[in-house]
Write a structure and sequence with these properties.
By secondary structure, this protein is mostly beta strands. It has helices spanning 23-26, 257-268, 273-300, and strands at residues 3-7, 42-44, 50-53, 58-65, 74-78, 85-90, 93-94, 107-110, 118-123, 132-139, 143-154, 161-168, 171-181, 186-191, 196-197, 201-206, 212-220, 227-234, 239-246, 317-319, 325-328, 348-349, 358-364, 371-377, 394-400, 404-407, 413-415, 423-429, 434-439, 444-450, 457-462, 475-478.
Length: 492
């Protein structure tokens, strides 16, 4: 890395801030005349470039050669422009008021060895914008010098998430997404033998924080690519992440012999158009069922272990010892009325809180005539009268009167349910702003809330009131099996 020194000359005053035209001298290799009473030195920095991951701290070292006490010197760190200070040590102390805005509160000069002419600049929470060259500058009363360091930034993003989009072109379109990469990642599909599979579409975008998001899609057709791997690679780190999807034959749309025969008959017998319409409707409905099941299977991959938080449980609720089930008791328990506890609404939250990512869990509801499940914001109101709707931060569905299923939107949305669910799956995709519910009994989709999330979300459970012993069965959080190759009021 460049290093060098320059004399200020005996007739020049001790300058705290060098003019910009001195910059051409700082890094010039020409010979300098140094007065005999001045102390000459060079500034030395590591020859190799420094690599650091996004979000980590980096240490930028430099020192004087020969070694000498630099306590009374000015030590300045800057990038391309001398007056734009990253960190300034002057008059024996740091000068934070001189820093440019993007580095304020993010730097620290380690000067344990400054008496030997050695300092280290620590920059906290590295960002993509921090990449580039840094100058370490020393100035005494008679001499100055500087050296360059080069910093490279890399971000290894999230594991690829593969989701099922729709039926398309005789196959199933799947989409692979991932974020948090720097620099721009390479993304591609490969089949089970490692061969490259051309993508249907590919999109990469750089976010405000400088990190890249990537999305790539492909159409999987039966007997061509039943199993696919999505690879996302950081070329700078030479590291990659991958995810795999396998789709069984029954999920692929196909043309049956009956359909071909029907098409021939219809070409001759026009009056059979109504059976054709009925068949088309039935085929469309079956495709919808298969697609819903495929999305549910995809959600199961993100299963998490959820437990109940006793600090939030309303005083009538009885939790099991393993904190996996909750039921409504007939009497209130003598519990501390802490701020986290719901009262009087019979609600308990999950211990786990989510501020990002994808999370799935399943709850056994059995034959309970009333229940409410989903997620809510950690910041929701917990005392007195509350409105359990999505507008108030509750993304939940419920059963009332043993037969009426509702999504608690505003206004409420009645859910058409043909098969009574004995078990309900809840899937939170934080970044996509979605909370989806699935009927595990028939593998169908119940409802999806969409929006934009901020702050922490927590699992929500309410077994509702115990009226005459009819609602005494518990809600039970069940382990998720490994996936194969009128408006009702809130419970009070």
């Amino acid at each position: 890395m460049p290093k060098g020194g320059n004399s200020l000359g005996p007739s020049q005053p001790n300058r705290k801030h060098l003019p910009l035209h001195f910059l051409c001298i700082v890094f010039s290799p020409v010979l300098h005349i140094v007065p005999s009473d001045s102390v000459n030195f060079k500034v030395v920095s590591p020859a190799q470039l420094l690599m650091v991951s996004v979000g980590e701290d980096v240490l930028l070292p430099c020192h004087l050669s020969p070694r000498m006490n630099a306590e009374d010197m000015e030590v300045r760190w800057f990038r391309s422009n001398f007056p734009e200070v990253i960190h300034l040590y002057q008059d024996g102390k740091d000068q934070p008021e001189q820093q440019i805005l993007e580095f304020q509160g993010r730097t620290e000069l380690l000067r344990e060895n400054i008496t030997e002419g050695s300092v280290v600049l620590r920059i906290h929470s590295i960002r993509p914008a921090d990449e580039g060259q840094y100058s370490c500058f020393f100035q005494s009363s008679t001499f100055y010098g500087a050296a360059l360091l080069e910093l490279k930034v890399a971000g290894l993003g999230s594991g690829p998430h593969i989701s099922v989009a729709d039926y398309e072109d005789g196959g199933i379109r799947v989409v692979c997404t991932s974020g948090g990469w720097y620099p721009e990642p390479e993304v591609l599909w490969r089949d089970s033998s490692g061969q490259h599979v051309p993508s249907l579409s590919q999109m990469k975008s750089q976010q405000e924080n400088g990190l890249f998001e990537a999305q790539i899609s492909v159409v999987i057709k039966e007997r061509t690519h039943p199993g696919l791997n999505c690879y996302i690679r950081n070329p700078r780190l030479n590291q990659e992440k991958e995810s795999t999807i396998h789709i069984a034959d029954p999920f692929f749309p196909r043309t049956s012999l009956w359909a071909v025969a029907l098409a021939v008959v219809l070409s001759v017998l026009g009056f059979l158009i109504f059976p054709a319409i009925y068949y088309s409707w039935m085929q469309h409905r079956e495709k919808g069922k298969l697609l819903a099941e495929l999305r549910w299977r995809s959600a199961q991959v993100h299963a998490v272990d959820v437990t109940l938080d006793p600090a939030t449980a309303q005083s009538n609720l009885i939790l099991s010892e393993d904190r996996k089930s909750v039921r409504h008791g007939d009497t209130q328990q003598d519990l501390p009325d802490n701020p986290e506890r719901f009262e009087p609404y019979v609600i308990v939250l999950g211990t786990e809180g989510f501020t990002g990512g994808r999370h799935y869990w399943e709850v056994e509801v059995g034959k309970k005539p009333e229940w409410t499940l989903g997620v809510c914001r950690d910041s929701v109101r917990r005392k007195g009268s509350i409105s359990v709707t999505s507008e108030s931060g509750y993304f939940v569905v419920c059963l009332r009167d043993g037969e009426k299923y509702w999504a608690r939107t505003s206004p409420l949305t009645r859910l058409p349910v043909s098969v009574r669910p004995g078990q309900v799956g809840v899937f939170l995709d934080y970044e996509a702003g979605e909370v989806s519910f699935y009927n595990v009994t028939d593998r169908s989709h119940l409802f999806t809330f969409t929006g934009t999330f901020s702050g922490m979300l927590r699992p929500y459970f309410s077994p509702c009131l115990n009226e005459g012993g009819k609602n005494v069965d518990p809600l039970i959080i069940r382990p998720v099996p490994a996936p194969p190759g009128g408006n009702p009021g809130p419970c009070q």
